């Protein structure tokens, strides 16, 4: 039997508290509490309070009839959570979205890399292709993204001056897809069969796959109707078949050099194309769709004091280094800390799932628990990264949290299928584009505070995360 920690002799071994209730009925009750009666965070908080434990048994959506087994062992603290990343002890096969998997008809009939376990030969093959692909484009990251950001901020300025506010999400979504498509295919998406609505095609494709684990936020009178409509049966892929064909044709025609390289790696050309679409649409665009608004929300709401500190650091370093370079970005300690803090307080992907490969003993701060082989393990990342026994004032956004001595806490910043202190490899499930996400978030702050002294926003929560309205942009007075 394996252990997730060396604390075995220091804490008592206990039974995992909680139960999943009656078959079918227990899952429905938990599902309604999760989505409608309590809401996500209160659902977990209430369970922790009830069981006096951050490790417990529960049901997770979607449940009947989409998921045949909604029962999970939930891990909601920083100490127990990392077992979900240890692929020597847990399996990641077909469990990206939780206790169900969308039809492979959404991905051309293939199980794409994100659904493969590292023990499967094809996983390392595809992951290595992605890592090499990103490495080959490394020289384009900074100049290309800065050009895309220039277009984004010009658009936001026009809207804020004409209408006194700007929808950040819509502008950011279009910019994000432009960047990743230009990076990989050296052309704008609108110059392909996607046209000017490429990001909307991806949105529809994403929504149909993820609908069973989300709520539309409709008035309460529609709760039961929504639950029946999106959680009784999986939504069929034929609804977006014509949209996906446009995406496929666009990549097939525009990514020829990449597909040639994929064939040299030993991948079939069409399989590589479907994997490329998933990487771009689900991992890259989907991640940016969530992360950039979260970055703007938290930095915007932090106020003018933090803005002055960021502007001073960014402008000083850029002036000293003679421009925006990788070296300059690495010297911006507060800027880096702010990005990590956004990832900590609002992780890109809030859920992690895995299945135990063997009998395990995992540890929370005050107890050890045995998980049996084959059991599904679930982690709610925002609770693990707001563990009050690790982070002081965990629910507060603290921009300088990871400066100097605070860097020691980076091992508790968990995102992209691994801790911040580990790197993606072909043999793990760390997101291949993890470092690119960090780079882009830093560049967004750099470009923002080279142009503006401060800005203000309004923010609400939606299906895809934060929805941000930019109310004002105050142009830089010095640099």
Please describe what this structure looks like.
The protein has 479 residues and is α+β, with helices and mostly antiparallel strands. The chain has two domains: 1-101 and 348-384, no CATH class; 102-347 and 385-475, Cytochrome p450 (Orthogonal Bundle), CATH 1.10.630.10. The chain is built from 15 helices and 14 strands. The protein has helices spanning 25-37, 40-51, 121-136, 141-163, 168-185, 198-210, 223-231, 241-254, 256-264, 269-302, 304-321, 326-330, 333-345, 381-384, 434-451; strands spanning 2-3, 13-14, 55-59, 71-75, 90-91, 166-167, 351-356, 360-363, 368-371, 376-380, 414-415, 418-419, 452-462, 465-475. The protein has a five-stranded mixed sheet with strand order 3-4-10-7-5. It has a four-stranded mixed sheet with strand order 1-8-9-2, with no helix packed on it. Strand 13 (452-462) and strand 14 (465-475) form a beta hairpin. Helix 1 (25-37) packs across helix 2, helix 9 crosses helix 10 (269-302) and helix 11 (304-321) crosses helix 15 (434-451). It is globular.
Q: Return residue spans where pLDDT drops below 50 for at least 5 consecutive residues.
A: 1-9
Mean pLDDT: 94
**Helix and strand pattern:** EEHHEEEHHEHHHHHHHHHEEEEHEEHEE
- CATH homologous superfamily designation of the largest domain: Cytochrome P450
Helix and strand content put the structural class at alpha+beta
Report the CATH architecture of the largest domain: Orthogonal Bundle
- State the strand order across the main sheet: 3-4-10-7-5
Q: What is the approximate shape?
A: globular
Beta strand count: 14
Number of helices: 15
Q: Please identify the oligomeric state.
A: single chain
Distance between the termini: 60 Å
Helix content: 40-55%
């Amino acid at each position: 039997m394996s252990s997730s920690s060396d604390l075995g002799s220091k804490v008592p071994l206990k039974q995992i508290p909680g139960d999943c209730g009656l078959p079918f009925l227990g899952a429905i009750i938990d599902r309604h509490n999760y989505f409608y009666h309590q809401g996500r965070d209160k659902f977990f908080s209430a369970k922790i309070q009830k069981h006096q434990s951050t490790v417990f048994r529960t049901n997770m959506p979607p449940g009947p009839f989409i998921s045949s087994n909604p029962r999970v062992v939930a891990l909601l603290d920083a100490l127990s959570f990392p077992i979900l990343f240890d692929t020597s002890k847990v399996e990641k096969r077909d469990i990206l979205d939780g206790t169900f998997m969308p039809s492979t008809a959404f991905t051309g009939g293939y199980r794409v890399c994100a659904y493969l376990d590292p023990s499967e030969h094809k996983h390392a093959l595809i992951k290595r292709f992605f890592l090499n692909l990103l490495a080959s484009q490394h020289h384009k990251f900074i100049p290309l993204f800065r050009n895309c950001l220039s277009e984004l901020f010009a658009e936001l300025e026009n809207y804020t001056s004409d209408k006194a506010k700007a929808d950040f999400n819509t502008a950011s979504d279009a910019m994000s897809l432009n960047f990743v498509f230009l990076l990989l295919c050296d052309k704008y998406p609108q110059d392909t069969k996607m046209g000017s609505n490429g990001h909307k095609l991806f949105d529809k494709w994403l929504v149909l796959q993820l609908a069973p684990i989300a709520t539309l936020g409709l008035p309460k009178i529609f709760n039961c109707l929504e639950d029946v409509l999106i959680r009784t049966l999986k939504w069929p892929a034929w609804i977006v078949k014509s949209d996906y064909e446009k995406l496929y044709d666009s990549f097939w025609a525009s990514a020829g050099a990449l597909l040639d390289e994929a064939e040299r790696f030993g991948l079939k050309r069409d399989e590589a194309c479907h994997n490329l679409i998933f990487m771009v649409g689900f991992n890259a665009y989907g991640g940016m769709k969530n992360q950039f608004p979260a970055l703007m929300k938290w930095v915007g709401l932090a106020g003018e004091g933090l803005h002055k500190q960021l502007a001073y650091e960014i402008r000083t370093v850029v002036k000293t280094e003679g421009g925006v370079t990788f070296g300059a970005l690495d010297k911006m300690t507060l800027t880096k800390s702010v990005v990590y803090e956004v990832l900590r307080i609002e992780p890109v992907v809030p859920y992690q799932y895995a299945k135990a490969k063997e009998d395990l003993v995992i540890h929370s701060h005050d107890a050890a628990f045995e998980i049996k082989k084959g059991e599904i393990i679930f982690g709610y990342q925002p609770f693990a990264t707001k563990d009050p026994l690790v982070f002081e004032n965990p629910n507060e956004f603290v921009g300088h949290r990871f400066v100097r001595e605070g860097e020691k806490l980076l091992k508790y910043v968990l995102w992209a299928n691994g801790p911040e202190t580990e790197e993606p490899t072909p043999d793990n499930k760390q997101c291949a584009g993890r470092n690119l996400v960090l780079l882009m978030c830093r560049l967004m702050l750099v470009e923002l505070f080279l142009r503006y002294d401060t800005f203000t926003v309004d923010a609400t929560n939606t299906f895809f995360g934060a929805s941000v309205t930019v109310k004002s942009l105050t142009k830089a007075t010095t640099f």
